[in-house]
Write a structure and sequence with these properties.
Layout: H1 5-40, H2 44-56, H3 68-115, E1 121-124, H4 128-138, E2 144-147, H5 151-159, E3 163-165, H6 172-177, E4 185-188, H7 193-206, E5 211-215, H8 221-228, E6 232-234, H9 236-249, H10 251-261, E7 268-273, E8 297-302, E9 308-310, E10 323-328, H11 330-340
Parallel strand pairs: 1-2, 1-4, 2-3, 4-5, 5-6
Antiparallel strand pairs: 7-10, 8-9, 8-10
Amino acid sequence: MSLSPTRRRSLAGNDRRILYALLAVILAMACGAIGFHLIEGWSILDSLYAAAQTVTTVGYGDVTPATGHGRLFPMIFMLAAVGVVLYALTATVHAIVQSELVATFGERRQSRKMSKLRNHFIICGAGRVGSHLVRGLLNSNEIFVVIERDSQRVTELTELGVIVLVRDATLEETLREAGVEQARGLAACLPDDADNVYVVLTARDLNPNLHIVARAAEEQAEAKLIRAGANRVVAPTIIGGRRMAMALTKPAVDDFIGSITANKLELAFEELRIDPASHLVGRKLSETNIRSELDIVIVSIRRADGEILFNPSGDAAIGGGDILIAIGHTESLMKLNALATGLAVDFV
């Protein structure tokens, strides 16, 4: 479970109260030791020993004051010391109980929030790869949950407002708690390939319709992840090597791809599924105003039967269930998505 800023402040306040209580006891013992040393003339060790007996109410009886002032001082010191000790015990117990209550209510609130999630994404691991994925999702309107155990990463994610589950992502109960059975997709971004394989196997068993993307640290792990149930496997080292080769041999192409990825051109790729009820169904691309009015380029069309048309011509007809891969400005893509899902009948 992640620590909210409110809970972190509460725990910090509890820590301060316990520290103040401890300091109060130490200060009381120091005052008592000084008093015994000055009044009775005892050594520092004997004075500290007598002060400790008084504060803890033990009273072994082996060291006792011999003078009148020596007896008067302990009477006053006993009353003050007992008050200090009671305050210290009360503050410590209060801090512990409050921490437990905060933790319990926090877990219940987190559980209620998790139980309401539907059609969300689950990110397993927020390391070097997962953290970039999280930043990408933060820029979208998608709802997602991150499963992470590293306390520093959990703190950083919580400060960004991310829903974090502090658990082991390889455990079945963890994935259930994250709502894998109602989730739309899962990304296995753990640094170890064996852990990713286990996450994929478990997630696929819990939700056969889940779209799973897995990270492969080693090239030979790709086939294992596919067999385990991953829909897509991403190998950062291989992709990085190909990107470096492109940057070395085709710098202009690499600059263009980098500009889109970094949104410098304010362009984005979008995947648009055509609903059978959409008014685009049955129309040729040339009969729509996708290019002329929305300034959107249809890069490819994936038919419902799996056929892929790259750079489709104007004569290509749009069918229900087709997936359009488009590139354009975000606002235009939103308008086209409204058409694709049947929420709009014409361009605005």
